[in-house]
Amino acid sequence: MSGPAITAVMPAYHAAPFVAEAVASLLGQTTPPAEVIVVDDGSTDDTAAVAEQAGARVIRQPNGGPAAARNTGIRAATTE
């Protein structure tokens, strides 16, 4: 049984050491999301590059906090 396509949105700030494992976990689910969006919320480390290499779509924005990053990701989602 297949459910609706979903998008996983992950706000990230200075998350380079953790973001690859988090993206891999999302993509490794029994029913993986149609897309994974990592919103790099103004990081100065390699968060965006690591997330892209892990298979996520990355959106970069100036630091606005996790709620603003989630909202940015939700607006960019291509699923319902």
Outline the structure in words.
39% of the residues lie in helices and 22% in strands. The protein has helices at residues 16-27, 47-54, 66-76, and strands at residues 7-12, 35-41, 57-61. The protein has a three-stranded parallel beta sheet with strand order 1-2-3, with helices on both faces. The relative contact order is 0.28.
Low-confidence stretches: none
The quaternary structure here is: single chain
Q: In angstroms, what is the radius of gyration?
A: 12 Å
Shape field? globular
Mind summarizing the main beta sheet?
Answer: 3 strands, parallel
Q: What layout of secondary structure does this protein have?
A:
Blueprint: E1 7-12, H1 16-27, E2 35-41, H2 47-54, E3 57-61, H3 66-76
Parallel strand pairs: 1-2, 2-3
Give a brief description.
This protein is α/β, with parallel strands linked by helices and 80 residues long. The protein is built from three helices and three strands; from the N terminus they run E-H-E-H-E-H.
Features:
three-stranded parallel sheet
